[in-house]
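hiii so um. not sure if this is the right channel but i have a protein structure encoded as tokens and i wanna go backwards to a sequence. like what aa goes where. can anyone help
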């Protein structure tokens, strides 16, 4: 399995249970992480021993990856673009500012090198409209098509993965989070550590079909341990007693995915991303 995501923590918060589950079944789970999560505030006390936020967040990712049981992590070396409208969008190395074909070429390299049967990335609106998630979605979709194209030349021969999935936000959980947020003193338009997640709008607009639900109950403690690695990102809503954490305990035994390839028939309900894989 090859998982193509934008930041350290994306592998744990949305799909950590699924990754832990497959790693425990003996699947080699590889992660391409486009940035080191350079942007956003981190409490000063958590910066001891680190020169930059990126260094801190890379070490958090390595901690989580070891707990989840990932086989390999490959950074693409882009810079976190921050949320829309911030100066970080304009940095020359910002992921969201790169031509999609350039990012896709790097993903093609890993698909052709690692030969994944299943590829997973962000959904088309990047879960909650984070520009880096959207950029990584676009690059991964392009790469999935190019990797098998014999006319697309790179340093490695073509390879065709069998399935492509987008991780989707669990809608029930989000609806409840929006309802409960005010009780915790949180504005549902300003969720998250950096208050930059407009969950209320995402719940209204983001609606992708769920084609696969993965039951992660057996690994929920492992996912919680991996979550704890990302301590710089655990303020506010995702903190230990935040509404998202409490709701995740309740709804969080499943993680949901939309299948993009092969094109799903109507009403597809898979319980395994490797269903039908040869
Ligand atoms: Zn992210």
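sure thing!! here u go:
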């Amino acid at each position: 399995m090859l998982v193509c995501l934008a930041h350290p923590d994306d592998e744990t918060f949305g799909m950590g249970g699924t990754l832990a589950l497959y790693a425990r079944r003996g699947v080699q789970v590889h992660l391409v992480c486009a940035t080191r999560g350079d942007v956003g505030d981190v409490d000063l006390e958590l910066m001891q021993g680190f020169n930059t936020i990126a260094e801190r967040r890379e070490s958090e990712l390595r901690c989580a990856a070891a707990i989840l049981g990932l086989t390999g992590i490959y950074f693409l070396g882009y810079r976190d673009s921050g949320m829309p409208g911030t100066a970080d969008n304009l940095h020359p190395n910002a992921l969201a500012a790169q031509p999609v074909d350039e990012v896709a070429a790097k993903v093609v390299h890993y698909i052709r090198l690692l030969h994944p049967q299943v590829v997973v990335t962000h959904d088309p609106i990047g879960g909650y409209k984070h520009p880096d998630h959207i950029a990584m979605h676009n690059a991964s979709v392009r790469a999935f098509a190019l990797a098998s194209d014999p006319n697309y030349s790179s340093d490695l021969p073509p390879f065709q993965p069998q399935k492509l999935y987008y991780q989707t936000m669990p809608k029930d959980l989000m609806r409840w989070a929006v309802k409960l947020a005010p009780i915790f003193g949180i504005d549902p338009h300003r969720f998250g550590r950096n208050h930059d997640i407009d969950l209320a709008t995402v719940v209204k607009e983001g609606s992708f079909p769920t084609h696969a639900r993965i039951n992660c109950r057996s690994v929920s403690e492992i996912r919680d341990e991996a979550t704890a690695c990302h301590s710089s990102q655990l303020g506010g809503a995702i903190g230990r007693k935040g509404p998202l954490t409490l709701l995740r305990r309740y709804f969080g035994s499943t993680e949901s995915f939309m299948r993009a390839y092969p094109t799903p028939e109507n009403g597809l309900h898979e319980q395994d991303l490797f269903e039908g894989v040869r």
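oh and The mean pLDDT is 90.
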